[in-house]
Amino acid sequence: MISLAVVFPSPAAGVLWVSMRPEGLPPVPERTAVIARRAFPKSSLPMRVRDRLQDVFSDEPFAEAFGVRGAPALSPGVLALVTVLQFAEDLTDRQAAAMAVRAIDWKYAIGVELDDPGFDFTVLSKFRARLADNGMERIVFDPLLEHCRAEGLVAAGSKQRTDSTHVISAVRDLNRLELAGESVRAALEALAVAAPAWLAGVIDVAEFAHRYGPRVDGWKMPSSKTKREQLGLVFGQDALRLCRAAWDAETPVWIREIEAVAFLRQVLVQTYSIRVDARGREVVSKRDADSDGVPPGSIRLASPYDPDARWAAKGDDLFWMGYKIHLTETCHPSTEAETCRRVPVPNLITDVHTTDATVPDVKATAPIQQRLHEHGLKPAEHYLDSGYPSADLITAASKQGITMVTPVLLDHSPQARAAEGFDKTAFTVDWKTRQVRCPAGRTSSTWNPARQHGQDVIVVKYSVTTCTPCPLNSQCTTARPLRRTLTLRPRELHDTLAAARSEQKSETWQKKYALRSGVEGTINQALDVTGIRRARYRGLPKVRVQHAFSAAALNIVRLDTWWTTDPLRHPRTSRLERLNYQLAG
């Protein structure tokens, strides 16, 4: 029976130290094993996970998150196994805790007696919080990956593919007006608990309770645009009043360190501007994007209840608040003959990478490849879509032995977009003399290394006296004054881009690149099995815990399918197919 003494710190009771004795999964009681084998004569996923992956769920990796003194904690290996099974079946914490009580195969998996009362469901959320606080989101995913590597299921030098999808945050969407009001409300709620006496001394509690008692909801706000703007100014004035009181010299420092109060100050700075008018009066007004400026999307706050969530857009149709997840998996193209002889090795997830929604895919490429290299799983070929590559990344990966099979972005010059006139490919670059020759045979006049958007470039210009009399200038440039300008990358990167753009036009490359499309099925499976489209928790660290356990759960589901597939079993065929075979014979 698992002890149910208090396991984790309680905010209401203060900090409670807990200790852990690394023991791993407890042995399966004899009676539980007998009944489970009778109930599941062919076994089940939880039972197979227990039998085959017991070493993955050991307690030792969790030692840093637990002390050596204090009340004994529930085995983190057991909680990790329960969490993986929870995500494999897309269960809530309550449902997972209930399964540990009533499901015989779950009892077998965690090694408890049939009459064990289980544990309270809140233990799971506190367990995840402890993992997030200690940076242990991959505490199960990495050992499982290492187990698969030892079994020969994943290895370096293989083919792997990566894709991303958006993740919606666990909080409701707020417009800028709702965000301002709800940020004030969140700070008031936190202060009402942490410093009620101080709060009563700096605001009119009755007035603020009337305004901020119910949650701020756009549907309940005035329909008049003028009145909504006035309400927005009231929110700004109230936020300024609270912040000034919190940052007053006589106010205890810990008040301004409350997360909701610090968040309110950031929202105040991002949403409002403070000026002094001609009469010397202080005026609070909403920031204007043109005159006052607004913060970029990467730092623009979206909700007081999830400070890490960000608004982002993809194309013209997709607009969401939350995060982005990148999944990388192995891909084993096999011939029909190989498939008939044996069960194909399963495609397993080798990396999971979660960022806020504003981080572009190209920023995730290097971290993903670096982690794969650290785990001894550096791919020989890495298949990605056009959002991931750049000339720098392709060149750097090639030096590390990784071939990025990905379509690079084409030339975006006006001539290339219009498919008329002379694009960059029509010019010949002489790197030794640092000159460029145009289709008319004329050479450039200047060659200037520079930095644009954080990248090294070479700006090549032709002189006006060269371009103006040229009979081909109408096909070359429409700039005024009439002169052609080219922006090149350094030679190595320029040659890399040129070679990649040339190669991706071939039919052979396009057939090869078709292998990447399979990762979209993995994204869809992750959505269906573990529900990664929506974040279960608030904050990037906890969302990363969710995604790492989701990836581990997907790998276990795929491993279980591989374990239980009989290569000699004939696939089911329909009666119509059988008739077709008979007529063909």
Structure overview:
With 585 residues, the chain is an alpha+beta fold. The protein contains 24 helices and 15 strands. Mean pLDDT is 88; it is low at 1-17 and 336-341.
Rg computed from alpha carbons, rounded to a whole number of angstroms:
30 Å
Helix/strand-derived category reads: alpha+beta
- What overall geometry do the principal axes of the alpha carbons give? flat
- Number of alpha- plus pi-helical segments: 24
- Rounded mean pLDDT is 88
Q: Roughly how much helix do the residues carry, as a percent range?
A: 40-55%
Report the sheet with the most strands, covering strand number, pairing sense and barrel closure. 6 strands, mixed
Percent strand? 5-15%
| Number of distinct beta strands | 15
Oligomer: single chain
What is the end-to-end distance?
Answer: 63 Å
Q: Pick out the low-confidence regions.
A: 1-17, 336-341
